[in-house]
Design goal:
By secondary structure, this protein is of the alpha/beta class. The chain has 6 helices and 9 strands; from the N terminus they run E-H-E-H-E-E-E-E-H-E-H-E-H-E-H. The chain is globular, with a radius of gyration of 14 Å.
């Protein structure tokens, strides 16, 4: 199985989890990385520039109709749901919040699962809601890979716990072991 895209969801404590995770990814990657983070933090709009300081891959905010480019980290913009359409371009939506959040991890994960099927990996990190649990279940139903941060070490364990309860996981790991696992998958040829 070849992974073509990796979607990552997080909330409370997410910035501190994303920095070492993205720093641990080894370029070049032939996969696109798409990050959805939500919190009450006013600096959410600065997330791409904050992450770029800790990542060896280019980082940019996803925009309407931009292509989902391999080898790049795309970040969901604040205030919009981020979807991946069948033509592998982004779409933005101002539909109602899901689990009180916009952007919603569920919305991103579900649209990515429809587009990539078994060629998708979903990563659920720390967070304080159940957002992303149903989306991770969609990824697994489509044959994709599900990775969940070990709730015992997550600053906000509710999100990984909800993901495990609803979707289970192919791998439940401490944060420090997620990037090495992704590197194994992303640098395979087949």
């Amino acid at each position: 199985m070849r992974i073509e895209a990796i979607v990552i969801g997080c909330s409370a404590g997410g910035l501190d989890a994303l920095k070492p995770l993205l720093r641990g990814l080894e370029p070049p990657l032939s996969q696109a990385i798409v990050v959805c983070s939500h919190s009450g933090d006013q600096a959410l709009g600065l997330l791409p520039s904050l992450l770029a300081r800790h990542c060896r891959l280019p980082v940019r905010e996803a925009r309407e109709r931009f292509p989902v480019e391999p080898g790049m980290v795309h970040v969901a913009p604040p205030g919009y749901h981020l979807l991946i359409e069948r033509d592998r371009r982004f779409a933005l939506s101002v539909d109602e919040p899901v689990h009180y959040s916009r952007p919603s991890i569920d919305v991103l994960f579900e649209s990515a699962a429809e587009t990539y099927g078994a060629r998708l990996a979903g990563v659920m990190l720390t967070g304080a809601s159940a957002d992303g649990a149903e989306g991770l279940a969609c990824i697994r139903r489509g044959g994709g890979l599900a990775i969940v941060q070990d709730p015992a070490e997550a600053p906000a364990p509710a999100m990984p716990q909800a993901a495990l309860a609803r979707a289970g996981a192919d791998h439940c790991l401490p944060l420090a072991r997620i990037a090495p696992l992704l590197n194994q998958w992303t640098h395979r040829d087949g």
